[in-house]
Amino acid sequence: MIGVKDKVWFLREGLFAKYVISLVGLVVFVLAVNGAMETWISYRATKTTLTDAMTEKAEATAKRIDQSISELERQISWVTRASQDTPEKRRADYAQLLNQVPAVIRLTLLSGQGREQLRLSRTTVSSYSGADYLRDARFTETVTRGVSFSPIDFEGTLPFMSISVAHSGFNAGVTIAEIDLRFLSDFLGDAQVGKATFAYVVDARGQVIAGSSKGPEVGKDLARLPQVAAQTATVSRALEQGTGADGNSVLSASSAVPKLGWIVFFERPTAQALAPIRDQILRGALLIGIGLMVAILAGTLLARRMLIPITALRAGARRLGAGDFGHRIDVHTHDELEELADQFNSMAGQLKETYAGLESKVEERTRDLAQSINELKVLEEVGRAVASSLDLNAVLPTVASRALEITRADAVLIYGYDAAKRQFNMVEAQGIDKSVEGEHLTIDEGKSILSEAAASGEPIAIPDLTHVADIPMRDAAIDAGFQSVLVVPLVDQQGALGALVVLRRAAGEFPPGLIGLMRTFANQAVLAMRNARLFTEVDQKGRELATAHGVVQQQAEQLRNWNKSLEDRVEKQLGEIERIRRLERFLAPQVAQLIASSDGHDALLDSHRREVTVVFCDLRGFTSFTETTEPEEAMNVLREYHAALGELIFRYEGTLDRYAGDGVMILFNAPIQFDDHTKRAVKMAVEMRDAIGLLTQKWRNRGHSLGFGVGIALGYATLGQVGFEHRLEYAAIGSVTNLASRLCDEAKADQVVVSRRVYGMVEQWVEAAPIDDLVLKGFNHPVLAMEILRWREEVENVVDAAAAAAARRRKGT
Known about the structure:
50% of the residues lie in helices and 22% in strands. Strands 19, 20, 21, 22, 23, 24, 25 and 26 form an eight-stranded mixed beta sheet that branches. Strands 1, 2, 3, 4, 5, 6 and 7 form a seven-stranded antiparallel beta sheet that branches. α2 (15-78) runs antiparallel to α8 (275-321). The N and C termini lie far apart (149 Å).
């Protein structure tokens, strides 16, 4: 009955079942892993191929859209020519553009003041309506950038946008062209997209502005789709997997049109794209099923062949385990199982021989264990003594007596190490008279056996003192009747604390077990000595902390008084910082700080009349430069230009009135007055010309032909703040500003033109050349002007500039 139960167990839970299950599992695992890897590789390859193809189409379509918009921009720029300076002249250009470009449905002409002068479509013409576009983004952004593109609007399902282009010349106006975007759908035809793929274009808000025949409807909001949301986010990223407008999963590829913020999407339904993968999974499942059946059949046949010999080995092992060492296992399979049976038989004979001597060894080990238990009890007692007291004088006698007990020696000495005196002093002794004077009480550090043990950190044993060289305390130990010594160092990570010396009257080796035990024993003694020293140090530090606590309380009271004073000063500084922030909107930092640091100087910004020097400067050829270059390059040039001017304006403490594009206006003698304001203005202008001259060489190397001109005038103007609460500016109003602006217009490249009155104020410091009388717009009489050639060193010992100039004229005659 037991044999039947063993056979059933062997079939269900023994090696038979394990072999069958292992073989079946291995076959299924290999087939499953192979199928999974092939499926995954096919999936990645199919997905990558489709995604790359759609990405190429998306990029090509985005490029064509960008080119078409750039072509529209170029064609619209044609009607902004400076030669057509009246609405009547531009009407013919507008009509020609409408006839040639079907995408343009309406053109609007705005004056430099943002007023509508002409509106022309294919069906209507409206002239001089006067509509105000001054705050319209299409006007303001175009004046600033030269070209602007409006967001997409829809009339029903028809998308359209506006392209605005600034006219050539100063304050010349803007042309707004409204574009019908239905032509974008021509880029998404079935021939370009493909039969199984659909495409669409969305703007920055996620609204569809064009689509293929199978794509979403124009005007539909797709901002919530994951692939669209990822591209229109602040930090855009492309998703290969997304959701279609119908809610089904799609493979997605996209490309952006950076100029307009549009995104072109090409998508294909995932179920259709990955249909070959499903077929491959079905083939893999069928192959796994066939492999499973083959593995079960093969595993059953192999396992049955191993059943009989393994059963015999199992039965024999049970009998050996029960103590029947005379039993032998009979297996004849001529393989490893027969060799294993022979090994079992050999092992049974060896066990029978070994068992006979086991009892004697157990008795010997029992005696050793009893001795080890006694030693552990001694160590436990020493540990309790160390933990029970922090008085070193009470702990050391216990340590010495227990050391004497476990070593069965005749005497034990404990030495403490004095680092200051570099010597070992005996602090405890058991087995000898401590009152006996001798060299053993104090041993200097050096070549002594105590120093060697402390340096190495290991015990040193001398089995016979009569056979060693002369060492300290050797003669004293021999005279006292001791023949062997064991020195155990008392050290830890912080350094040496002393040494433990064990003395015996009989010569002989110290057992290794005893040396190891004494090493552990010494660690207990080190712990006791270190704790006692730490207790003494902590007690001393406690008294020092009590003294320091009183000092800290006094300092805390002083800190409270300082904090109150500091709060008052911080509140005052915050008020001054706020005043500086308001003033730095239009003043140099040093001027703003000067005003803010003086109480009552805000009145300097109130309306008043004063003589000022006005400087106007701009770049020659900048307008044509912006028409022929990319906006990014134009912005780079402006940043370099403004940076060079700004440094000089703040250095000479000028007031930056305003700037628009390349034009900059600077005031001197307002709001802060300077006696030499005209001199400052002219000297600053000369340095500006030199600084911008270096920049023009750099720009010329980049293919840009630009020059720099300056106009300076001196006269009276009304000064004060203009604007509203959140945007204030310091402005000057008067004919002197107009004169400086007109002189700047007359200045040629690298020329500084000043009025005769300005020249009279700085004549002694400059070299100048006369300019023909200028007929300026807004002035009834010709204006006398001079060109400043260079600045020279100041004239020494000249009190009156006018007198110096008169003297030079008389000398010339």
